[in-house]
């Protein structure tokens, strides 16, 4: 495992912990898109079904279990425990416009036409756009809490580092995965505007807002 993948995993874990702590400490999920979190839970569920069929390493298994567990814990907090604080009026992105095309693409473009491989491919494609409901929600409300922007920053950093990881593996291991690289590029591009606002506003102590 190279340093870019490890740092990417840690950034991803940091994002998840930041979000869970934010919800738990404030006893509120205000400003958090439940739809994005459901999509991420779907991403991890479909990607890590290989937990039932293969063992790669203790680290690999542990991280997969943590991602799945935290994803469903977040969904539970939003839609059950702190449901009264969930802002469904602004969380209105039509997720079917993401899930259906992504599902079709996974059937058409994959490495191997087998159930687990199609589900893995589906998860890669879906993860690249799963943050859109959250960004759409921020654009509708006009601003985001600072702690929410930290969550988004580390989530975007995780994907950017993973993109570098794929490049590293190509040059030093001869491993090339076009599906993962293209999806990573798409996801990183979606974060570009946010990264700019994060650096120019949040890091200077200002509130972040996206153009409506």
From TrEMBL:
Its main location: membrane. GO terms for molecular function: ER retention sequence binding. PROSITE patterns: ER_LUMEN_RECEPTOR_1, ER_LUMEN_RECEPTOR_2. GO terms for biological process: protein retention in ER lumen; protein transport; vesicle-mediated transport. It is found in: Cytoplasmic vesicle, COPI-coated vesicle membrane; Endoplasmic reticulum membrane; Golgi apparatus membrane. The keyword Membrane applies. The chain crosses the membrane at residues 65-82, 94-113, 119-139, 151-172, 178-199. It is a multi-pass membrane protein. It comes from the Eukaryota. InterPro entries: ER_ret_rcpt. GO terms for cellular component: COPI-coated vesicle membrane; endoplasmic reticulum membrane; Golgi membrane. Keywords: Cytoplasmic vesicle, Endoplasmic reticulum, ER-Golgi transport, Membrane, Protein transport, Receptor, Transmembrane, Transmembrane helix, Transport. Belongs to the ERD2 family. This is ER lumen protein-retaining receptor. It comes from Zoarces viviparus.
